[in-house]
Amino acid sequence: MRVLITGAAGFLGRKLAAVLLSDGLSGTAVHELILWDQLPIAAPEISDVIIRSVSGDLLDEECQEAAMGDGIDAVFHLAAVVSAQAEADFDLGLRVNIDGTRALLGACRKLGTCPRFVTTSSVAAFGGELPDLVPDTQAPTPRSTYGMTKVVGELMVSDYARKGFVDGRVIRVPTVSVRPGKPNQAASSFASSIIREPLNGEAAVCPVAPDTPIWLTSPRRAVTALVKAAEIDAAALGDDRVITLPGLRTTPEEMTEALARIGGAAAAARVEWTRNEDIEAIVASWPGAFAATRAKALGFGADESMDEIIQAHIEDEL
Amino acid sequence: MRVLITGAAGFLGRKLAAVLLSDGLSGTAVHELILWDQLPIAAPEISDVIIRSVSGDLLDEECQEAAMGDGIDAVFHLAAVVSAQAEADFDLGLRVNIDGTRALLGACRKLGTCPRFVTTSSVAAFGGELPDLVPDTQAPTPRSTYGMTKVVGELMVSDYARKGFVDGRVIRVPTVSVRPGKPNQAASSFASSIIREPLNGEAAVCPVAPDTPIWLTSPRRAVTALVKAAEIDAAALGDDRVITLPGLRTTPEEMTEALARIGGAAAAARVEWTRNEDIEAIVASWPGAFAATRAKALGFGADESMDEIIQAHIEDEL
User: Nearest to residue B105, comparing CAs of B56, B55, B171, B168?
Assistant: First the structure.
């Protein structure tokens, strides 16, 4: 099986690559893995597996040819401009998240083999006045350019799937915490920082109110969901290719309480509570909980507690 | 006031132009009207009003400059590839309905004056399993490429409005009947044909089941709604720029019954009931009725009966 990951240098891409190499996909070994990102990726050498790095723009036809010219069985499209970045650079947000996704869908269509196409959407699909528990049938009301581009991606993937161009699947992923690595330009970056940095003995800023509702998933669950999304029978999805994932409903206050339990009071004390209006405007527009009825029926699960999420981070990263 | 209409050669564009020239917009006379369509339009000569025709592609920057280079106060963007046509030519559907709309939004943004930007979406935003009465909060689930492109347009207009690039408004227009002129490539074209042609002594085919639910508006109501959408106070809309219009819930059977009452049994007998699977697949995916709660609160109205719609058609066109 030949699999392409875009945004492969990101933490989800790297974790996904490791899982695909160890477990395969749909019971079949991955014999070729193509890792596409803006900059070249040092591909690990593994016997019996070809791992290739493709670097450059999603819209670059030479890159598309290098990545997919030999055909592809499954694409995990993770490359995206994140929320605060798209809010600061509208044109870049549209170029990467809409035009890039469309270019990739077009390249898949050109193959004529209807490859599996898995990509992510976000809680940022929603904003404004919403029910406390957002049902699967809730109309997306993005209040950020990132969210808008993600919903456009959902619509395109569903229609390309309906037309038989790709076997598309989109998962709406909760805010991921604890991300390894450094803060990024996602408005939700703090949701990882306020756990990760204190555990490393460093200070972190929480830019939103302590009681802000947050819909969370661990990186482990997010990767499991990506693989599961690729493996689900297309017939179980029908024409609607968008799956809102279950998550853990929490708040920064509850997160730091769990941090105190696991990392000690000193760790929790490293969180500074300094509100930032720009970040807060984006994050507070996101719903705090989703019913995720369809995802649960399809067998997607959520983390049980913040303590479990922090423990998993310590096991995986520290 | 300087106003641009795209798709100005279409029947809605022509009717809208006439209303704008006679009534103005928001209490201000229209002193310049730009009529943009693929082919040149013979502009009527009216004293004190400049009427200009711009012909060519929405993506053509020279056309954009010709249409909007002097600034614009309001844009009515009606140019679109219709439903059956977009289903037959996927790339054309995306090019005109997504790229064209985005190009126009971009040209408005470049002006830096946040012009009013009114465009249309459709019942085709919805498909699949839906409640009998679709609420305003229902998630769009297009089951046609046309519907998908229209929802993408909604999302773009709302976000361009949120960013202050345009003062955007999108109305989801019910199926319009009775359209004057000839059948077009809309899957809903029959909804006009089965009234219009029999009244002209000609035969018409109804390609869907007699009891298919149809959500209808007269051309008069559609034009009134376009003008009203442009005139509503932006503060009343907030960040959500999409308005699902009220309509008349009917069926082809009820429509031909009204036709028999007004045009006589001989007219109704000119309707042939020959089902077409392709048309039916599209039309049957559309919901039969919308709550349209928000639109009603904003003062948008619907036609009272099919009889009234047919009478208005006779008055306006015959």
Answer: B168
How far is residue B38 from each of residues B34, B98, B150, B164, measured CA to CA in Å?
Answer: 13, 17, 20, 29
CA distances from A96 to A78, A99, A224 (A): 11, 6, 25
pLDDT, average across residues A149-170: 98
Sequence ranges of the domains in chain B: 2-173+216-244, 187-214+248-289+303-317
| Amino acid at the residue B132 | D
Q: Is the pTM of this model over 0.90?
A: yes
Q: Of all residues in chain A, what percent are helix, strand and coil, respectively (each to 5)?
A: 45, 20, 35
- Exposed e or buried b for every residue in B92-120, given b needs 16+ CB within 10 A? ebbbbbbbbbbbbbbbbbeeeebbbbbbb
Q: If phi over 0 gives left and psi between -120 and 50 gives alpha, with beta otherwise, what is residue B115?
A: beta
Fold that domain B2-173+216-244 belongs to in CATH: Rossmann fold (3.40.50)
Half-sphere exposure of B315 (CA within 13 A, CB side): 9
Identify whether the C-beta of residue A279 lies closer than 8 Å to the C-beta of residue A84.
yes
SS (HEC) of B208-226: CCCCCCEEEECHHHHHHHH
Closest to B178 measured CA to CA, from B40, B315, B48, B35: B315
Residues 6 or more apart whose Cβ sits within 8 Å of residue A234: A167
Instruction: Test B159 with A148 for CB contact under 8 angstroms.
Output: yes
Q: Which residue has the tokens 């009013």?
A: B116
Among partner residues B143, B151, B240, which is closest to A141 by beta-carbon distance?
B240
Cβ–Cβ under 8 Å, residues A137 and B138 = yes
- Domain A2-174+217-244, classified CATH 3.40.50.720, yes or no: yes
Q: For residue A136, what is the nearest residue in chain B, using CA coordinates?
A: B139
Residues of A in contact with B159 (CB under 8 A): 142, 145, 148
Q: Are B219 and B11 in contact (CB under 8 A)?
A: yes
Measuring CA to CA, which residue among A29, A113, A121, A138 is closest to residue A80?
A121
Q: Is B146 a catalytic residue?
A: yes
Amino acid residing at B52: R
pLDDT digits (tens, 9 = 90+) for A96-105: 999 999 999 9
DSSP string, A170-230: EEEEPEE-SPPSS--S-GGGHHHHHHHHHHTT--EEE-S-TT--EEEE-HHHHHHHHHHHH
Two structure tokens written together for A226: 């990506």
pLDDT, chain A, mean: 96
Residue B7 Cα, gap to closest chain A Cα (Å): 24
B187-214+248-289+303-317: CATH topology: UDP-galactose 4-epimerase; domain 1 (3.90.25)
pLDDT bucket at B47, cuts 50 / 70 / 90: confident
CB neighbour burial string for A78-107, b if at least 16 within 10 angstroms, e if fewer: bbbbbbbbbbeebeebbbbbbbbbbbbbbb
Q: b or e along B298-310 (b: 16 or more beta carbons within 10 Å of the residue's beta carbon)? A: bebebbeebebbb
Tens of pLDDT along B109-118? 999 999 999 9
Which are the contacts of A230, defined by CB distance < 8 A and separation ≥ 6? A25, A26, A74, A76, A116, A118, A169
* Tokens read off for A302: 């959520």
Residue A250: which H helix or E strand, with range?
strand A248-250
Handedness of CA A57, A174, A163, B80 (dihedral sign): negative
Q: CA torsion B141→B217→B211→B133, rounded to 10°?
A: 50
> Which residues in chain A have Cβ-Cβ distances shorter than 8 Å to B94?
102
